[in-house]
Structures are given as structure tokens and as C-alpha cells.
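User:
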Amino acid sequence: MRANRYVRTTGRLLFLLLLTAAVLLAPAPRLTLTTAATPAPTAMDDGAPSGPDVDVPAVGRAWPVGLRPRVLRGWEPPATPYGPGHRGIDLAAQPGTPVRAVAAGRVSFAGRVAGRGVVSVELAGTGAPPLRTTYEPVRASVRKGDEVAAGKVVGALEATGSHCDVTCLHWGLRSGDAYLDPLSLLPPWLLHRGPSRLLPVLRVPLPA
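Assistant: Predicted structure:
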């Protein structure tokens, strides 16, 4: 009986020794410190508006004035909500020039603001809230609620009320309270279209 008890005790001690050795000799597990992801800083961190991620569809089918007006000043988004910038573009045009809707939509405002004539059109098929384009200074020929097609005349350019050195149309684009680049409404073929040129016809003599 003593011999059996000795064998069992020795076996247990040997097992404990082997288990202890295995624990001590095993490689230590690699500890990985994980932290919550820190979002990248954005323009909103310093109070500047980042603007919504708006995919502006090229729904424009006409320039607001003329066939290819000269851009006197482009779109310059402000760095802060009330900072300096240019919330639209200025197009050179003569007083009385017809002002046309660049795309189909519904007139949301036609009247005077701070002494300047303003026409705003909510563009059809541009989501909710719809994109809104604005023209000033314009003597409106449409009323609030009118449906307009692309290229339809909405008024005439006024001689006074412009902030340019010469008479110009200020054309703006907004999505809610955010300002966007109005030129993004125009497709490339309309932006880069040059003057028309007559091509020669083969085997037809030129006029004397």
C-alpha cells in the first residue's frame, strides 16, 4: 500500500513540475494596444464650413446670359461662414440682356432684396432639398411658382445693383445653406464650346 501511495504522490509531483515548466517556458503572448480611431480633422474644426458632399448633376442646358459669356470673377468659397470669398460667379453682360434659366425648375423667388432684383429657381430632379440657382441684379419677368424650362427668359439684367466694375450678372448655386460652384451645373460641351467655324466643302470652288 505504501508503494502504491508513493507512486501516486510521485506521479502528481512530476505532473505539477512538468506543468510548471511548460507555463514558464511558453512564449509570452503579444499584447496589442488598441485605441479608438481618431477622426481626421476637418475644416469644421476651426469653424469653417466644409460644405455637404453634394454630387451636382450637369443639368444645365444654357448659359444665363449670352452664348459664352466672359467670367469676370469665379467662385471662391469662403474659409469661414462669414469670411471673405465669392459665393457665385460674375458674368459680363450689357444692361437689358435677357437672363435665362440654365436648367428646368420652379421659380422660388422673384423680387427685390436690398434694392436689387433677384430671381431664384429650384432645379427639377436634383434631390431634396433641390439645388437652387440665383440670378441678380435682374428685373424679373416671372413670378414665384412659375415653371421654367432650360433657356427660358426669367428677366433682364439691370444696369444698377451689380458689384462688378462693369455691368455683370451674379450667378449663384446653393444646396440648403451651402454655396456651390454654379459652373458645375454645365456639361463640358457647353463649358468649352468655342466659336462656330465653317468647314470647306470638297470640290466646291471658293467664291471670288
